[in-house]
Amino acid sequence: MDITLAKKHLQKDPQLKPLLERYTIEARGISADLFRDLLESIIGQQLSVKAADTIIQRFINLFADAKNIRPEDVLGQDDVTLRSVGLSRQKISYLRSLSEFIVSEKIILNALKDQPDELVITSLTAVKGIGRWTAEMVLIFSLGREDIFSVGDLGLRTAVSRIYGVDREDKTKIEKISQTWSPFRSVASLYLWRSLDNK
């Protein structure tokens, strides 16, 4: 992500400009471990940050090489062990689905880095337990894509609602506002989240 170039474009929006002046954000690059990011995204779904962090750490501790967890390692864990770290049966099935997709090469993670945004979303949402929102977060935070806006994200809609005075449930209007930030919608999103005191 080129934050400097993005800010130059985004400051044309008078409502967004104060956020650019008030907050500092970090550019996102391509993750060194996309599989790990996806595992953590699935585990963290519908959990508080604190609860997610606890379960993720317990999950990681199951593996001999915690810094290099492979799909085969996940598939090698039995359900009882996975349940013991706080994972629901549903999330266990999601983690297995992801791992099976990768082992069978239905998804080649390295190839995602060069694929168009919508193709990445299509590939990831084929996995049980990965919806569009999760795929969009992967595009922003793990693949460093610059032009993603997740209208399904309640935090983003809340921030836009506060700044632009629109109903946060009016996804059509919010999507239209976001189009003015293209091709740097991801960077705008990072500032909007920051305005909510999110990391």
UniProtKB/TrEMBL annotation:
Alphabetized UniProt keyword annotations: DNA damage, DNA repair
GO molecular function: alkylated DNA binding; DNA-3-methyladenine glycosylase activity; DNA-7-methylguanine glycosylase activity
Annotated GO biological process: base-excision repair, AP site formation; DNA alkylation repair
Gene3D superfamilies named among the record's database cross-references: 1.10.1670.40, Hypothetical protein, domain 2
Residues covered by the HhH-GPD domain: 43-197
Superkingdom of this protein's organism: Bacteria
Assigned protein family: Belongs to the alkylbase DNA glycosidase AlkA family.
Protein name: DNA-3-methyladenine glycosylase II
Species this protein is from: Candidatus Collierbacteria bacterium GW2011_GWA2_46_26
